[in-house]
Write a structure and sequence with these properties.
The structure holds 2 protein chains of 2 kinds.
Chain A lengths: L13 E2 L7 H14 L7 H11 L3 E3 L2 E2 L15 E13 L2 E10 L5 H13 L1 H8 L4 H8 L6
Parallel strand pairs in A: 1-4, 3-5
Antiparallel strand pairs in A: 2-3, 4-5
Helix pairs in contact in A: 1-2
Chain B lengths: L1 E5 L8 H12 L6 E4 L6 E2 L3 H6 L7 E5 L5 H13 L8
Antiparallel strand pairs in B: 1-4, 2-3, 2-4
Helix pairs in contact in B: 1-3
The chains are: A alpha/beta, B alpha+beta.
């Protein structure tokens, strides 16, 4: 059974001046923010790390999308997103990541979000605007278009 | 040559599923494209971002297209991958 709920991205979930020494530290920060938002149970952190270990969540254009595993959906309290920008970059298994889109989702609602994110990243100008965003509202507007695909 | 398939993954075409398809498409001798009725612009099947941009949910009809020697086999193997649920053990 899937639950078609779009994960919510709001300004409190956008952090623009993050620092992380490596990929694991970056995922811990992503988990910190999802917990602060009340989106996940604390055990979701480990699921995010396990998922990353199983296969990198790097999607291209300097962006990674850390998230949990299929079995960890019970640890999601509220379908939510967080966007963490790492201005100094984070080495992501050989790729340089400057934005993490952390996902807490119970069903397939985040597929629509991934579609919106992919559209942004496939457009070089919008991809650069996301990587260099200085305003949380702009990030929310970019990733949360009103129209569903 | 055109081949249509219904997406079998219950969780939709998420990152792991898209990565798997893009890897398989990249190993084909022909260029394969995918489109949906909702997004009629065909995108390259070997690009993870392009596959994600489709926003395909379980049951979405995917239209695969390829031409040249090996096209039939390429479409068959990709269609088979798209039809199964990657989140089921053994898939």
């Amino acid at each position: 059974m899937t639950i078609n709920v779009r994960p919510v991205l709001a300004e409190p979930g956008v952090r623009l001046t993050e620092v992380a020494a490596d990929r694991v530290a970056a995922i811990h920060r992503c988990a910190d923010v999802l917990e602060e938002l009340g989106a996940v149970h604390p055990a979701y952190r480990e699921a995010m790390l396990d998922r990353e270990w199983a296969m990198s969540t790097y999607v291209g254009e300097g962006v990674a999308i850390p998230h949990g595993l299929d079995v960890s959906r019970v640890l999601v309290r509220r379908d939510s997103l967080a966007v963490l920008r790492f201005p100094d970059g984070v080495d992501w298994d050989g790729h340089q990541v400057s934005v993490c889109v952390a996902i807490a989702a119970r069903g397939d609602g985040h597929v629509a979000l991934l579609s919106a994110l992919a559209d942004v990243l496939l457009d070089p100008d919008r991809a650069r605007a996301l990587r260099e965003a200085a305003d949380p509202a702009a990030v929310v507007a970019m990733l949360h278009p009103v129209a569903l695909p | 040559m055109i081949r249509t398939v219904l997406l079998g993954g219950r969780a939709g075409l998420h990152l792991r599923a898209a990565s798997r398809i893009a890897d398989a498409a990249g190993r084909q001798p022909v260029h394969v494209t995918v489109r949906t009725a909702q997004r009629p612009a065909a995108v390259p099947a070997d690009s993870v971002l392009s596959l994600l941009s489709l926003g395909a949910l379980c049951g979405t009809e995917l239209i695969l297209e390829a031409y040249g020697p090996g096209a039939a086999t390429a479409l068959e193997s990709l269609a088979r991958l798209l039809a199964i649920d990657p989140d089921v053990a053994g898939a």
